[in-house]
Design goal:
By secondary structure, the chain is α/β, with parallel strands linked by helices. Helices cover 30% and strands 23% of the residues. The protein has 10 helices and 13 strands. The longest helix is centred in the first third of the chain and has 18 residues.
Length: 360
């Protein structure tokens, strides 16, 4: 495998991860890119002999995807043409690894041979990132004012996409052991598919599979099954998956959603709502931000495909990840949102409080 991709929310965690990856893969070339204010792109390269190169490029505007497409992709292409392998890419903070890989695939004219996608993060800061209601720009993680993503949205997307998590800890903020352990439990709960590397020597290529990573990021995708639990104390975090047997009453679900979101750090799901019959509604909740989207008609082979036919398992579900969740309470809360026999028999179109029905 030619390439290791490292994503992060901050440059300090990324730097630690790049150094660890380089030590674990002698002879590698490290390419680190940053996007600064006013469209300034800085790219630093350290080759296998330790020679360093630094370039600066000015973009017309601060755009992470443009920085990758116009600066990083050509540089990686030149390294591959010179037979430099493996290449460790440290992405600009808050740039999704999926965006970088898609740009590499297009720019190189062939699929990039990615051996691993690694998320570098400080575990004890994970909860703070998930519950941060500010945008990435407002929180100082990106110079792009138009980036409306929150830190939690970036983190959850990378946890889904990455195959490896490398815990890091910036020296300016000494780690608290209890906070580190709690954060690692949360990472394990949100990314049970991922390998949590104990150190740089534990980084191994060949773990990445693009199809599997992309599938985990699709809206309405059920969370992966829980992986091996971390040693030591039991995790305070768990994921409860509730299967839905009927369409949801939009009014009752709207009330229940606030209660559910208040006790969970991440929500996801797909289901039918009686105000949008026949439509697959996807749910995503990260920290304080929760949203529903109308994904159109259910697949033709799905039990929820036909309008007016209540969706049944395994298609319809809501999954909640949080601390000390009560599965029975969540089940009762959501079961009360399902249409009753009388409501099903009435067959009336219910008001749409979520704005999920497309305008006609």
């Amino acid at each position: 495998m030619d390439i290791l991709v490292i994503s992060s929310l901050d440059a300090l965690c990324r730097q630690q991860a790049c150094e660890a990856a380089a030590a674990a893969h002698p002879g590698s070339v490290v390419v680190v890119q940053d996007l600064l204010d006013e469209g300034l792109v800085i790219r630093r390269t350290v080759d296998a002999a330790g020679r360093r190169d630094r370039t600066e490029t000015i973009l017309e505007h601060s755009c992470l995807s443009c920085a990758v497409r116009l600066d990083l992709v050509p540089a990686v292409g030149e390294l591959l043409a010179a037979n430099a392998r493996p290449i460790i890419i440290g992405l600009p903070p808050a740039l999704p690894a999926a965006t970088a890989i898609a740009a590499l695939n297009r720019g190189l004219g062939r699929p990039a041979l990615v051996g691993s996608v690694i998320l570098a993060c400080a575990p004890d800061a994970m909860e703070d990132h998930l519950w941060d209601a500010h945008t990435l720009f407002e929180s100082g993680f990106t110079p792009a004012p138009g980036d409306e993503r929150t830190p939690g949205e970036f983190m959850v997307g990378e946890l889904d996409f990455a195959d490896t998590i490398l815990p890091a800890q910036p020296d300016i903020m000494p780690a608290h052991p209890a906070g580190q352990e709690r954060g690692l439990h949360l990472v394990q709960a949100l990314a049970p598919h991922a390998h949590i590397a104990a150190a740089g020597a534990d980084l191994r290529r060949g773990r990445f599979h693009y199809g599997a990573s992309a599938a985990r990021c699709e809206p309405g995708t059920a969370p992966a099954q829980a992986g091996r639990a971390r040693p030591g104390a039991a995790s305070p975090f768990t994921t409860v998956v509730h299967r839905l047997d009927r369409e949801l009453h939009p009014g009752r679900f709207r009330l229940a959603l606030g209660t559910l979101a208040a006790g969970c750090c991440v929500l996801r799901g797909q289901f039918n709502v009686a105000s949008a019959p026949g439509c697959r509604i996807t749910l995503q909740g990260i920290g304080p931000r929760v949203w529903l989207e109308n994904a159109g008609a259910w697949p033709s082979d799905s039990p929820g495909a036909a309008a007016g036919v209540p969706a049944t398992a395994p298609d319809s579900f809501i999954a909640a990840t949080g601390e000390d969740l009560d599965p029975a309470e969540i089940s009762r809360l959501l079961k009360d949102c399902e249409l009753t026999d009388r409501e099903l028999a009435a067959g009336h179109r219910l008001p749409d409080p979520f704005g999920l029905t497309p305008a006609t």
